[in-house]
Amino acid sequence: MTLRDIFQSIAENPTWIVVYFLLLPVAAYLIGEVATGSRDVKFWGYVYAVLSYLVCIPGIFAVTLNVYLFLFERQSVWDMNLVTQALPILSMIITLMLIKRKIPFELIPGFGKLSGFLTLIAATMGIMWFIDRTHIYAVTFIPFQYIAIGFLLLLLIIRFAWSKIF
How far apart are CA 16 and CA 105, in angstroms? Predict the structure, then answer.
């Protein structure tokens, strides 16, 4: 089974995916209402951590998929599958906005790992897009291990610079 087969299956029967991504913002709102006034910030931080991971992992995947499809595959916006490409991103944005209204992201355990992961994916996609546009891989005779080491060093530099900026 390929990724295309999975997306085709979801497109044929989107009910469960739509329900999942609609329930996440509703859950964030309801948890916020229940947690209002509670002094147990640590417990609610863990609850929000689970919720943020449930929404951010598919959302980050959808962002990455969209960047790949639009930059590398040249997919038209008119061919975009709303269930697999737009709904996870919208659900992620709405859920994170609802969470942010109730608790700062700094109090959510592991949330910094998600933002670091997103930074790493964005840096990787940017480097791959730059290499794709300049066709460096087509004209170089550098051994692959040196290119791989250079790629990893560039990712580390970007990650370090990003952490210093923000």
Answer: 29
CA angle 33, 37, 39 (to 5 degrees): 120
Alpha-carbon gap, residue 45 to 60, rounded angstroms: 21
**CA angle at 92 for the pair 12 and 122, rounded to the nearest 5°:** 100
Both tokens of residue 3?
Answer: 């990724």
Of 139, 104, 120, 130, the residue nearest 63 (C-alpha): 120
Return the number of other C-beta atoms located less than 10 Å from residue 56's C-beta: 22
Q: How far is CA 64 from the centre of its chain?
A: 7
pLDDT tens readout for residues 37-76: 777 778 888 888 899 999 988 998 888 888 888 877 888 8
